[in-house]
């Protein structure tokens, strides 16, 4: 799903302050999926409640482009979008068109002969926290991310998230499960070998009498 976008293929090469969530389905640019995307983004943007004190703030041009990408995605069920770049007016009063890059937000894209998106399978949204915040604040934000992903739902939409903290936790859990199974397997094998050797010794010491 991400293979056609080099930015998406490097999505896991991130730092502890960066978090990602993804929505996926057969065709993502539909009203239910876009509403789920917008609702989840709004709740994450305003955590802790009512402010963005933990999120890193980029330059005004960067913030403006991020806002335009969000607006474009919200309108995507009704308008045709070209890919990986589209052209939009940055304000209602302006007739000038600005180029906005969508390749880092929309994935699994198929286009028609005119370059317009005919199908898109995933939406990606990333967050970066400020440098210098505490580990407790990072953990709190990560817990909220996981909670909000689980409570956000839409028909036929798959939600998934990733962060370095969650990834390390999943790896540790997987290794722990594997370790337990290895111990169980080793115990069963040891018991089998013990019983087999006991049976072999019993056969060797058996005596026979001739009458």
TrEMBL record:
The keyword Isomerase does not apply. The chain crosses the membrane at residues 181-203. The keyword Lyase does not apply. Keywords: Membrane, Transmembrane, Transmembrane helix. One of its GO terms (cellular component) is cytoplasmic vesicle membrane. GO terms for biological process: endocytosis; molting cycle, collagen and cuticulin-based cuticle. PANTHER family: PATCHED-RELATED, SSD DOMAIN-CONTAINING PROTEIN. This is SSD domain-containing protein. It comes from Cylicostephanus goldi (Nematode worm).
